[in-house]
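Interim report to the steering committee. The following record documents the input for Cytochrome b5 heme-binding domain-containing protein (179 residues).
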Amino acid sequence: MAERLDLKNLKGTWMIIKDKVYDVSKFSDHPGGFEVLADCKGKDSTTDYIDANHPDYVEEDMKKYYIGDVPKIHQDEVAKHKTENDAWLAIHGKVYDISKFTDHPGGAEILLENSGKNATVAFDTIDHSKEAKKDLYKYYIGEYIPDPNSESLPSTNYFIYIPLLALIIGIILNSFYFN
Ligand code: HEM
Ligand code: HEM
């Protein structure tokens, strides 16, 4: 099995595109310029890559720079990291190592409380700013695989069916009225 990539300690100009990791340190003749690649360093750059409208043949070129897949991290592994010096948490399907995030504006305590688990709901409750969401990539270490036994899928919001229900009732009442 290929060695698992340690995203947090990866050196060089690397980036994630479509769940794959590329090291473009030596791609100084990138036709779009090296600067744009440097700006994507250490981030999930899938959107930037797509926005640049690369032609299909580039996918073949990319193989030269491929160094591995984004690690998949199971909940049981996340659960092992919930101490002050070793804290991981999951937000929206991604795992973050926040051990070194000592200056969280919301305080260190709340981060520690949410470590070792899926903190998506807690994170969203605060209505974090765009900047805060962008900052997440600094701590990104892998894709989150939830435990199917302990985590249910997001529950269906049945309120979305209310307009549909109202429409159906309207149609039924209408047909009675006109008959
Ligand atoms: C391993 C990753 C990448 C590879 C192999 C790659 C390769 C290429 C190639 C071959 C072209 C020329 C395309 C053509 O023939 O029109 C190109 C253009 C370009 N790339 Fe990338 N690219 C990569 C990542 C990125 C990323 C992350 C960005 C971020 C914004 C980016 C931005 C651009 C831009 C702006 C152009 C110029 C488009 C133009 O002038 O029309 N590339 N890239
Ligand atoms: C790596 C994950 C996180 C990052 C990067 C992050 C980042 C930030 C940032 C930049 C702020 C300042 C306000 C803003 O820009 O929105 C903030 C505030 C805050 N965060 Fe987080 N946060 C993270 C996780 C969490 C989690 C899991 C909780 C749990 C509830 C939390 C609770 C708070 C609270 C309570 C505040 C203060 C809000 C206020 O003063 O109005 N954060 N966070």
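The pocket of protoporphyrin IX containing FE (ligand 1) is lined by residues 15, 22, 24, 30-32, 36-37, 40, 45, 48-49, 52, 54-55, 58, 61-62, 65 (CB under 6 Å). The committee is asked to note this result when reviewing the revised timeline.
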